[in-house]
Amino acid sequence: MAAEIRREMGLGSMDRLDPMALAEHLAIPVLALSFFLNECSDAVSHFSRVESGAFSAVTVFDGARRSVIYNDVHQSGRQSSDIVHELSHGLLGHSPHIGVDGNTGCRIWHDEIEAEADFLAGALLVPEWAAVQIVRRRMSQGSAARDFGVSLRMIDYRINVTGARSRAARIQA
Q1: What is the C-alpha end-to-end distance of the chain, expressed in Å?
Q2: How many domains does the chain have?
Q3: What distance in Å separates the CA atoms of residue 111 and residue 53, rounded to the nearest whole number?
Q4: What is the DSSP letter of 52?
Q5: Concatenated DSSP letters for 92-155?
């Protein structure tokens, strides 16, 4: 799916994916949390200053229409991952899974659905072949993160999940 979407957008495996271009391609509006400062100043302030790590991004539904809201105080690489993760829910056809634990008041987490969106977001941002090439070319993870517009954590995740180290070693042998 990731390869098909990237082809539709005219991107090769070593090209950087712009999350906003993907959102436009999918016709899913994406808004920064700070956009809501006038309407919800206390919430925006809380998630921007007090507990910025408590909110990354969310898909908001209006009937069948989706919009994504992301925390724009995070580093740009993390924002990319957060936005593409939420867009991946749309690509995978995930329905809203709203639920709150009555005992804790916390959102109910669906591990399988979140793992699917994590994996697709990673594949969209750093395709498998790109991860192999990063290792094969001995690129620093910092350089790769800058080139792909993602976090170091995303580069590390994609190198590990794709088996890029062993695949790169086989190519060089």
Answers
A1: 30
A2: 2
A3: 19
A4: G
A5: TTPPP---B-TTT-PBPP-HHHHHHHHHHHHHHHS-HHHHHHHHHTT--HHHHHHHHT--HHHH
Exposure string over 36-62, b if 16+ CB within 10 A, otherwise e: eeeeeeeebeebbeeeeeebbbebeee
What are the residues whose beta carbons fall under 8 Å from the beta carbon of 18, sequence distance 6 or more? 149
Contacts of 40 (CB under 8 A, 6+ apart): none
pTM greater than 0.70 (yes/no) = yes
Single out the residue of 70, 77, 80, 63 nearest to residue 18, CA to CA.
80
Query: Same structural domain for residues 35 and 115?
Result: yes
Domain with 29, as residue range(s), is 2-125
Residuewise pLDDT in 10s, the chain (173 residues) = 999 999 999 999 999 999 999 999 999 999 998 888 778 877 777 788 887 777 888 888 888 899 999 999 899 999 999 999 999 999 999 887 766 666 776 666 678 999 999 999 999 999 999 999 999 999 999 999 999 999 999 999 999 999 999 988 887 65
Residues 144 and 166 in one domain: yes
Q: What amino acid is encoded at 119 in this protein?
A: F
Whether 120 and 134 share a structural domain: no
